[in-house]
């Protein structure tokens, strides 16, 4: 069954298979939102007189029953039915009769799928916000727990200056605050109502778009009916850009995990059940979880580009190209949530080696400390730098880092400012309204 079918229509099966593609698979994810949008639309139709009060009431009750079926896992798109919109209307008409045929008045599949996707993306951005917040909280907790565990810091992957596990983990916590700024912006874009824009040019029916906006709890409308359709694809790309930012932070953290568990670094370790072994090397404890997080996050970072290529050079109005945004973005959302969850699992079970910097190979980490000590004694910086540099060249450098590391400014190993970072996150979270 197709909403656009006519008696003379006879679409080739090959064309039908090609045009539907994987759409049914992803439409199931939109089912609850399709029903939500339909309930709001029907309530509005009853209020403006395009359905009788009795018809609208019956339709709303029937749609609510379908919503319950969806929540219980009893909903599917049947063979021969084109999409989720057709399936919902078909079930409703079977249950309540001709009143079910009236719910499409003043609506096109274009604005129907647009509102479904907006509702879905709004819900998923909130779900990802919660996942990110949980990871953020864990990073702050672990940063405080391990703030006195010193690590070597690197530039160019060369030993550079003293760092700490607290400073390392706190960096990723703050990185997530900036990523959440993008997610909050994406949420605001998704939180606008396209319903009532029809095929992109409005309707001659006296629709009340402000009412459906209120019923669906959108912050506002996409006011212009043409632009409401142009948000298809654009909204997905904006959300994908926010997801890519989060994935970049998480993927980079995963790469650090792969390095730091390596025996040549040996900074951190995990229980055996969180690592994998080798089929021939009995000593192996591989960081497969971090490696897959890294790979998946790299793939997620490609999604905005893939969507950008899909949207490139499209004129205004709806185009079937936009159907493919679902199969590009929807799996990426699920993968990012899984990556966030697995990152939390790993970090909550991480152990840190004691006295890492006692190893002789890290002695040059303290060259800057030695220079600064001379400066504090009145030696000009350039002269102090030269003196320490000459000691290093001659193999005579020796510095006891255990005397004390004087790092007290904001954001240093002696002053992590985790409370301030948490305050920044709290401010960002307020933007999800």
Number of strands: 6
What's the story with the biggest beta sheet? 2 strands, antiparallel
CATH class of the largest domain: Mainly Alpha
What is the mean pLDDT? 93
Q: At the third CATH level, what is the topology name of the largest domain?
A: Fumarase C, Chain A, domain 2
- Please tell me how large the radius of gyration is: 29 Å
Count of domain modules:
3
Mind sketching the topology for me?
Elements: H1 13-20, H2 23-48, H3 53-71, H4 84-96, H5 109-145, E1 150-155, E2 158-164, H6 165-190, E3 192-193, H7 209-215, E4 220-221, H8 225-261, E5 268-269, H9 288-301, H10 303-311, H11 325-348, E6 351-352, H12 367-376, H13 381-393, H14 418-429
Tell me about this structure.
This protein has 433 residues and is mainly α. It has three domains: 93 residues, Fumarase/aspartase (N-terminal domain) (Fumarase C, Chain B, domain 1, Orthogonal Bundle), CATH 1.10.275.10; 241 residues, Fumarase/aspartase (Central domain) (Fumarase C, Chain A, domain 2, Up-down Bundle), CATH 1.20.200; 40 residues, no CATH class. Helices cover 59% and strands 5% of the residues. It contains 14 helices and six strands. The strands form three sheets. A two-stranded antiparallel sheet has the order 1-2. Strands 3-4 form a two-stranded parallel ribbon. It has a two-stranded antiparallel ribbon with strand order 5-6. Helix 7 links the parallel strand 3 and strand 4. Helix 5 packs antiparallel against helix 6, helix 5 packs parallel to helix 11 and helix 6 packs parallel to helix 14. It is elongated and about 90 Å long. The two termini are 39 Å apart. The mean pLDDT is 93.
């Amino acid at each position: 069954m197709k909403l656009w079918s006519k008696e003379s229509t006879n679409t080739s099966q090959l064309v039908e298979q090609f045009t539907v593609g994987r759409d049914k698979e992803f439409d199931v994810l939109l089912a609850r939102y399709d029903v939500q949008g339909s309930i709001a639309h029907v309530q509005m139709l009853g209020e403006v007189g395009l359905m009788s009060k009795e018809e609208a009431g019956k339709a709303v009750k029937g749609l609510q029953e379908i919503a319950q079926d969806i929540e219980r896992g009893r909903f599917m798109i049947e063979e021969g039915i084109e999409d989720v919109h057709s399936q919902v209307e078909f079930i409703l008409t079977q249950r309540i009769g001709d009143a079910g045929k009236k719910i499409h008045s003043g609506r096109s599949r274009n604005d129907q799928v647009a509102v479904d996707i907006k509702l879905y993306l709004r819900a998923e951005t909130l779900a990802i916000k919660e996942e990110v917040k949980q990871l953020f909280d864990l990073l702050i907790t672990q940063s405080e727990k391990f703030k006195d565990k010193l690590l070597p810091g690197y530039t160019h992957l060369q030993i550079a200056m003293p760092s700490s596990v607290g400073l390392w983990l706190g960096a990723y916590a703050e990185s997530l605050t900036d990523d959440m700024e993008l997610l909050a912006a994406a949420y605001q874009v998704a939180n606008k109502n396209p319903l009532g824009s029809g095929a992109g040019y409005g309707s001659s029916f006296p629709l009340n778009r402000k009412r459906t906006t209120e019923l669906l709890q959108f912050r506002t409308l996409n006011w212009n009916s043409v632009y409401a359709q142009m948000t298809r694809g654009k909204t997905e790309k904006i959300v994908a850009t926010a997801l890519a930012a989060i994935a970049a932070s998480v993927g980079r953290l995963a790469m650090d995990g792969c390095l730091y568990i390596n025996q040549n670094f040996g900074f951190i370790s995990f229980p055996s059940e969180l690592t994998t072994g080798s089929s021939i090397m009995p000593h192996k404890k591989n960081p497969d979880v971090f490696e897959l997080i890294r790979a998946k996050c790299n793939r997620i970072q490609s999604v905005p580009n893939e969507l950008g290529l899909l949207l490139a050079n499209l004129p205004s109005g709806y185009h079937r190209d936009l159907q493919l945004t679902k199969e590009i973005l929807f799996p990426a959302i699920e993968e990012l949530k899984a990556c966030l969850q697995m990152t939390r699992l790993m970090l909550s079970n991480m152990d840190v080696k004691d006295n890492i910097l006692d190893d002789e190979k890290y002695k040059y980490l303290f060259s800057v400390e030695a220079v600064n000590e001379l400066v504090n004694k009145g030696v000009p910086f350039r002269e102090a730098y030269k003196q320490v540099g000459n000691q290093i060249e001659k193999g005579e450098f020796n510095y006891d880092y255990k005397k004390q590391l004087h790092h007290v400014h904001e954001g240093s190993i002696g002053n992590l400012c985790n409370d301030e970072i948490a305050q920044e996150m709290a401010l960002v979270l307020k933007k999800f309204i």
